[in-house]
Amino acid sequence: MLDRNAMAQLEGLREELEAQNEHVDATVKGTQHRYGFAVTDDGREVFIPPDEMLKVLPGDKVAICIRPATPVKGKQDKPGRTVAEIERLIESGLSEFVGHIVQKGKATFVVPDLAGLSRWLFIPPHARNGVAPGDLVSCALLRHPIKDGKPSAKILKRLGDDTTPGVENSYCAARAGLPEHWSEKSAQPLIEAASQCKPLEDPARLDLTALPFVSIDAARTVDIDDALHAEVTPSGWQLSVAVADPTAYLANLDSLPNLLAERGTSVYFHGEVIPMLPEAVSQGLCALAEDTPRPALVCQMQVSESGGIERFEFHKAIIRSHAKLAYSAVDRYVTGNSDDLIAHANPLEALVQVYRTLRERRENYELVMEERREYRWMLGEDKQIAEIDSYEKLSSQHLVEECMIAANKCAAKFLSDAGAPGPFVVHNGFRQDRGEEAKTFLEKHRAELKDIPLDTVAGYRTILADLGRATHELPLRDMVNRLLSRAVLSETAGPHMGLATEAYTNFTSPLRKALDFFVHLQISACLAGDNAVRYPLDQLPVITRAIGRSREAVTAANRRLTARYLDKLKAEGRSQFTGTVSHITSSGFTVKLDDNGLEGLVDLRPEEEKFSFDKWTMSLTSTTRRFQLLQSVEVTFVGAPKEGDFLALFSLVEGCGLKPPKEPKPEDNSAALSVETEAKTDATAQAETDSAPSDA
Question: Is the peptide bond prior to 606 cis by the omega test (within 30 degrees of 0)?
Fold first, then answer.
């Protein structure tokens, strides 16, 4: 038996060793394996062994002890290797989540649909809420595993199963954490607040009800948020854009800005919409319905014959839409294929004139997005894709678009001139961290552009307009996309490079977008002579995150619908397609099918041939095959596995992408040909250098 002195020595040694260990806070990062990592505040990743990982869940904030790893018998260990030992839970990163139900014996489990978490969570009998195996559900954590490694969950809501119509939308919305549809209870405070306001009785509002505004929308649109009027003037046209003004009913509801920021936008799934505002407000009180007086924020512009906006004014007004017109009907009229809208001939003719003038000016002095073929999904009663049609935008849609862009530019200039804190939409063009790469790209492909400044509106426009011309051998405009930044929301005015304009914002969709609602608040304040902040500045990042979640949910739902549709076509014997390479990386490429616009992945890593990725030409090349951005390819649908979040996978049809055979060498080895051969050899060597493997 050890004496007390020995015991004390051992205890002292233990304390000394323990003192050498580091104690820090960290966030748990899960993997698809049993182990994980603890990410410290300074960015270090410390290995969490499987036995410790049982105590935590991905996203947990924990206190850890970083200690030397215990050597594994029979294995050579790295010197200085450390592991994380979980000491206590600070905050759980997992609250609500989605998944599917599985049964094992008499026990019920949920398999969480969470990155980095592959373990099943037990559902106690009292928390099952009547679910069955295969059900898709939303859950909440019931018991954290920190004490004994045995977590459990409770069912919040059954979303349906794979046969439930529309389950793709509801499941992906819940997974992305989107707010649910407005219930009668949640909508009641907004409806009550709105019903107490009487904006039509406000004498400060300009009466424009005699002006023959018309709305131009899809035939089924009910939340009409804009109406247009144009008339010829001696120097050009007066264009009036009236936008529904929900702030007239909701500006005094203190909780609303934060609530709308969390929603961010109306979410448009196929076959379903989650509206930003309750329908009683957006479709009832505020929509610019035909022959109904409505409060509106109106931008009146004096447009010159050259398409310049010489001056503009904003008015808080009352308008009355004289007609609800459909895109298709307006298009037939302006193209001379119908006289159905002859009663609106004067304003429509003026609108067409001002649209063409605005468009021509933007094409000459700004940037216009390249037109892409679009696709319309028709869903059956089961809310699955029944058919997909391709179409091109109608001229009437372009007409509305040009009017909205013009009004949005005026809104940005109005706020900027007033010294108001936006909000603005800023697009910086080329990414700051890709500036040198952009210059190298231009040197390789358009050397005459390399000295043009990348960070000015004029410079950016010159470069992008040049790259977009169809005369280039390579699709340069598409190739440069990876070097461009995303637009951001800002309280400070800045250029919108994508449109090649000095300032921009969005004010034309306040029934569907939180940003536009905030712009209305700010413009109204400025019209009253007050440019102080009228929206919560800290909510701009919230809107950005909400829009990101919405985009994520819609993309995920569309993948599931795509997978089901392609599975159906495959069962019918239609699994081979032609398509176009729409995106390319070092491992493969995305293909967009010509017939229906659906997208999926071609993974080249399993191929026997090894491909080299050249980021300067955006191509993948092997000894026999080559794939280039926008190249036509033939593919076969393989499947869309659940493990890949239902991303459609394609394989190449035999012979697809084969490089053309090399021309035979000339038999005459004269001196003249020798010089030419040397030049070709040098060029080939350079091409091989340029094609060295590299990631985008």
Answer: no
pLDDT of res. 339: 73
Which residues of 436-556 form beta strands (DSSP E)? Answer: 488-490
CATH 2.40.50.140-classified regions of the chain: 22-91, 575-696
Cβ of 597: how many Cβ atoms within 10 Å? 19
Which residue type is seen at 290?
E
DSSP 22-85: EEEEEEEEE-SSS-EEEEETTS-EEEE-HHHHTT--TT-EEEEEEEEPPPPTTSPPPTT-EEEE
- Do 596 and 635 touch, CB atoms closer than 8 A? no
Written as six digits, the tokens of 609 are: 């041939």
Residues shown for the chain? 696
Tokens, residue 316? 């808080």
- Per-residue confidence (pLDDT) for residue 573, from 0 to 100: 96
Place of tokens 């459609």: 648
Which pLDDT score is estimated for 668? 52
**SS3 for 88?**
strand
Residue 232 identity (one-letter amino acid):
V
Q: What pLDDT is stored for residue 16 in this prediction?
A: 54
d(CA 333, CA 407): 24
pLDDT at 20: 65
Q: Which residues contact 49 (CB under 8 A, 6 or more apart)?
A: 35, 83
| Residue reference for tokens 């059900």 | 135
196: which residues sit within 8 A by CB, 6+ positions away? none
For residue 338, report the phi and psi dihedrals to the nearest 5 degrees.
-160, 145
- 96-164 to CATH, choices 3.10.110.10, 3.30.565.10, 2.40.50.640, 3.40.50.720: 2.40.50.640
Q: Any alpha helices (H) in 196-275, and if so which ranges?
A: 247-250, 256-263
CATH annotation of 22-91: 2.40.50.140
- The rounded distance, in Å, linking the Cα atoms of 402 and 509 is 14
Q: Are the beta carbons of 84 and 65 closer than 8 angstroms?
A: yes
What letter does residue 497 receive in the DSSP assignment? T
The three-point CA angle 511-558-327 to 5° equals: 45
Q: Round to whole Å and give the CA distance between 175 and 137.
A: 10
Whole-Å CA distances, 104 to 80, 139, 144, 342, 351:
42, 19, 21, 70, 66
3-class state of residue 355 by DSSP: helix
Rounded Cα distance between 277 and 350, Å, is 33
Beta bridge partners of 374: 391
Its pTM stands at 0.89
Report the alpha-carbon distance of residue 89 to residue 27 in Å, rounded: 10
CATH topology of domain 575-696: OB fold (Dihydrolipoamide Acetyltransferase, E2P) (2.40.50)
Residues of the chain with pLDDT under 50: 670-696
Structure tokens of 382?
A: 């089961």
Answer whether 503's CB lies under 8 Å from 493's CB.
yes
